[in-house]
Recover the amino acids of this structure.
């Protein structure tokens, strides 16, 4: 499926922007202090939603221009990775609690769906509905490592020169994710973890490539 309606595409992407903005609002509301904001900005998920927001804002502003499949794929990989990681990070402090009454809703499950799952689903729909298929090449998936690599460099520099401390029970760390702290886990274990994460990002990228390839073949047969 590939819809060429500029009006519907613009409307849909404005809706995606609204969902993304709401997701960011949930993650940053009630932090209270600038230190809380700085702490939240050290986590991967909020930064991915900023990436998604600015990307879709760019798409809305340049609606008639063609998207490069490499850039589209790289952004999608990080968004999907963040959505997949949410269940594993929910106990790490990386996700704002949505079970409190000040959020105006009683169902934390519904809020988690709106904030962390609906956005990736809409991003996938945007790809399925509006992006020509069969253009995502086998060399493109490694580009999905660029954003997480920049994030990793940011964490290293912040841990070395920053002053924020993250608490994991009685354990303190300069990293927002304890599994990245070599002082706690050892250098070899951290390296192995980073390699596994990189393989995960590449896997998502190549699954996207296979999907694009298959849909391109199906569309080609229908012509």
């Amino acid at each position: 499926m590939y819809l060429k309606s500029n009006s519907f595409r613009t409307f849909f992407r404005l809706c995606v922007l609204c969902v993304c903005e709401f997701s960011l609002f949930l993650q940053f509301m009630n932090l209270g202090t600038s230190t809380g904001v700085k702490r939240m900005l050290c986590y991967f998920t909020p930064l991915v939603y900023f990436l998604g927001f600015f990307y879709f804002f760019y798409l809305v502003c340049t609606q008639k221009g063609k998207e490069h499949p490499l850039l589209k794929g790289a952004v999608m990989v990080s968004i999907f990775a963040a959505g997949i990681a949410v269940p594993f990070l929910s106990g790490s402090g990386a996700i704002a609690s949505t079970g409190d009454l000040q959020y105006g809703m009683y169902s934390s499950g519904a809020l988690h769906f709106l904030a962390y799952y609906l956005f990736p689903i809409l991003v996938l729909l945007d790809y399925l509905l509006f992006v020509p298929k069969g253009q995502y090449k086998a060399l493109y998936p490694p580009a999905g490592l660029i954003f997480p690599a920049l994030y990793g460099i940011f964490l290293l520099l912040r841990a070395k020169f920053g002053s924020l401390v993250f608490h994991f029970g009685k354990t303190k760390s300069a990293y927002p994710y304890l599994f990245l702290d070599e002082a706690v886990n050892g250098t070899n274990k951290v390296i192995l973890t980073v390699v596994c994460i990189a393989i995960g990002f590449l896997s998502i990228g190549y699954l996207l490539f296979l999907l694009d390839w298959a849909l391109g073949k199906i569309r080609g047969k229908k012509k």
Summary: Confidence is low (pLDDT under 50) at residues 91-107. The beta strands are 166-168, 171-173.
